Amino acid sequence: MLMTKWGEALDREHPLPEYPRPQLRRESFMNLNGAWQCAFTRENAEPETYEYEITVPFAPESVLSGVERVLQPGEYLWYRRGFELPEGFNIGRVLLHFGAVDQCARVWLNGEDVCVHTGGSLPFAADITELLVPGENILVVRVTDDTDRGWHTRGKQKLKPGGIWYTPVSGIWQTVWCESVPENYISSLFITPHLESGSVELLAGGEGAVRAEIEGESYEFRAGEPALIKLREVRPWTPEEPYLYKFTLTLGEDRVESYFALRSVSVGEDRNGVKRLLLNGKPYFMNGLLDQGWWPDGLYTAPSDEALAFDVAAAKAMGFNTLRKHVKVEPARWYYHCDRLGMLVWQDMPNGGGSYSAVTVSAPLLTGSHSRDDKYAKFARKEEKGRAEFREELLDMVSCLYNSPSVVMWVIFNEGWGQFDSDKLAEAVSEIDATRIIDRASGWHDQGTGELRSIHLYFDDYKYKPDKAGRCVVLSEFGGYSLPIPGHAQTDKPFGYRKFREHDKFRRALTLLYDGQIRPASMQGLAAAIYTQLTDVETELNGLITYDRRVIKLAPDDVKRIIAMPPVK
Questions:
Q1: pTM for the structure as a whole
Q2: CATH number where 66 lies
Q3: 441, burial (CB in 10 Å: exposed 0-12, middle 13-18, buried 19+)
C-alpha cells in the first residue's frame, strides 16, 4: 500500500486542523475532526453498538480512516461522536458545518433532526443553537451512497475501479466544524472584481451597516445591497504576480477576514484576429495539467494542508500556469493555495447519471460524430429528478467557488458522461456568473455553441484547425504518457495512452509532443493545452508525479523547458 509522507506523519487526534474557509474567516472555530465512532448497517436504524473507530474526515474506504471498508449500495453508514462547547463559545448562534459528505446525509443532534443534504461535493451548514444542551452533546450522521449504481454525481468513483475509474469514496471527507456568530451576522459574501475600473463589488448577507477595511482604507455600505468600491491602488492578479488584497468586514459584533484579487478573463481576438483566451484583457496561453485530486492514503482527502499545497506548487515549479480540476470539487483551502501561489483553475462539475453507454461516450472519438444532448436516454439521463439535482448542484458549485480568483472557467460536462441540455445549463450558470468562461462539453458531443471548441486527443497527432463556427479552440486533454516508477506504483500493469519504461524515452516523447504538436499549434491559434496529468492515480500511471508524491518523474526545470510556450500577442 502506498503512503504519502504526510499520511505517515498524520496526527489522528487532530487531522486537518486548519480553518477550512479562508475567505470568510472568524475567530470562532471549533474543529470536530478526529476520532468518531462508525458502523455499517443494512437497516435504517442507528446501531446499538459501533464496531469501528474512524478518523474523520477520511472516508471509510481510505487507509487513513482506519476502517478500509467500502460502503455498498443499500447499506447505511453511521457516525457518532460527543462534544462539549468551550466556556464562552456561544455568543448568540452556533452553526455546525460539514465541508462535504458523500453522498446523502442526515444529521441529528441529541436525538433531534438537524438537516438533510444530498450531494457529495459541496459544503452545508445548520443552526444548532436550540438543540444544544449543557455538557456533552451527541452528534449522529447517517450516510447512504450508491456510487455508480445510482444517478447522483460521483466523478471518477466506481464500485469496480480500474483504468480511469477509481476507488469509491463515501461519508465525511472534509472538515466538520462549529462556529458561533451573533444574532445578526454576515451570512454570505460575494466578491466581484472589476479590473477595468479598478474596483471591487462586495455583496454581504445580513442586516444593517457593514464596514469594510481594505488595506488601510475604510468603506461603509448596507448588507444585502451590492457596493462598488474604488480601490486606491490597482494591482492585477496573474499567475506570475498573484497579488491578493486582504480585507475585513464588520457587521455589528460580527467580524470576518477575507481576500480578493483583481483579474478578468474572457475570449477575444489577438492582433491577427484569432480567438484567444484573455487574462486581464490580453491574450494568455493557458498551459496546464489535468488534476484528479486523489491520494493513495486519503483518496478524496489530502492527508494534510501541506499536501494540498504541494500539488499546486509542484505544477507551478514545472512551468504550468493552469490546473483543470477534473470532475471533483476540492476543499476551500485548495483554491486558496491556487489563489495565493498563482495557478489558474478550470473547474469541472462532477459527472452523474446512470450507467454510461460505451458507444455513446466513444463514438465521437472514433467517428467524429457528435449527438444532440437532449436525447436523455442515450446519455443515461432518463431520470428527471436526477437532471434537476445535477442542475441545482452545478449552480451551487458556481456560487460556492464564485469568490476564488484562480477559478477562470466552468466545465459543465466531460466526454458525454451524463451530459444533457448543456446550452440551457450554460445559460443558467451565466445568470449567476457572467465573469468567467464556460466549457459546455469538454472532449466531445460538442453542440456547436458557446465560446469554446474543446478537444480531447490521445491517439493521433494534433494539428491545429480553426473552428468552423469561429470559436476559441482549446485542447482540454491530451498526452497521458505513462512511466511506472518501481516501488511507487499500485500495479505492474499500468494504464496509459502511451507506455514507457525508461526515463530517457519518456522525456524524449514528451519533448517531441510539445515541439512537434503543441508549440506550433499555439502559434497558429490554439489557446490552451491541458496535459494528462499531474499525478498517477491508482492503476492510471500517466502522471508527472507518482501517486504517493514521493517522485517527480522528470526534473521540474526539464519539464519547464519542454513545455515553454512563445508569448501570444
A1: 0.97
A2: 2.60.120.260
A3: buried
